């Protein structure tokens, strides 16, 4: 597949390079249409979206971030993941809180997110998340022809079509999940 958003990245077939993937990601990719998923090695110090885009020439508008949310209601905890464009922020206290049916929702603490996903902080991706977690995908992500997302580690990125992400087993496409980042 030809990736128009790759910038200076060298994109390889993801399943051919498990060393560039977190274990849960590699396992999940085996069950997907992986011909439509590429992986590119990057400098781990440049894994944060803004630094990555600036260095590798990939457009910020074609990057999506996966955030882990923890909600609580009556002593019960509920994890979920939200996938939003990098130019937006997930509406955690509104849309996400209501979807999880919790009284309070916030970003999960880093150590809990890493422990629960088996992925590196800053590289958490929707592919390979725990099967019982809801994956809330912003409608703009689902419509995107190509996106750069995490690979489960900080040393690489995945390139995928938005439709593949919207079709993940626990995914639910949500209108207005994200809000534009105010300048």
TrEMBL record:
A Pfam family per the record: tRNA_edit
Protein's name according to its UniProt entry: Cys-tRNA(Pro) deacylase, prolyl-tRNA editing enzyme YbaK/EbsC
Domain (YbaK/aminoacyl-tRNA synthetase-associated): residue spans on this chain: 44-161
InterPro entries, sorted: YbaK/aa-tRNA-synt-asso_dom_sf, YbaK/aa-tRNA-synth-assoc-dom
GO molecular function list: aminoacyl-tRNA deacylase activity
């Amino acid at each position: 597949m030809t990736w128009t958003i790759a910038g200076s990245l060298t994109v390889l077939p993801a399943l051919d390079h498990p060393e560039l993937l977190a274990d849960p990601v590699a396992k999940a990719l085996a069950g997907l249409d992986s011909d439509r998923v590429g992986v590119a090695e990057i400098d781990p110090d440049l894994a944060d979206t803004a630094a990555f885009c600036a260095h590798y020439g990939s457009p910020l508008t074609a990057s999506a971030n996966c955030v882990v949310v923890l909600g609580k209601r009556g002593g019960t905890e509920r994890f979920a993941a939200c996938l939003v464009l990098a130019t937006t922020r997930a509406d955690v206290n509104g849309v996400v809180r209501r979807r999880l049916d919790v009284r309070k929702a916030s970003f999960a603490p880093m150590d809990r997110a890493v422990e629960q996903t088996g992925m590196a902080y800053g590289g958490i991706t929707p592919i390979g998340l725990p099967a019982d977690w809801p994956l809330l995908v912003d409608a703009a992500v689902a419509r995107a022809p190509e996106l750069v997302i995490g690979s489960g580690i900080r040393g690489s990125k995945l390139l995928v079509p938005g439709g593949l992400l919207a079709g993940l087993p626990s995914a639910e496409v949500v209108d207005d999940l994200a809000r534009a980042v105010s300048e």
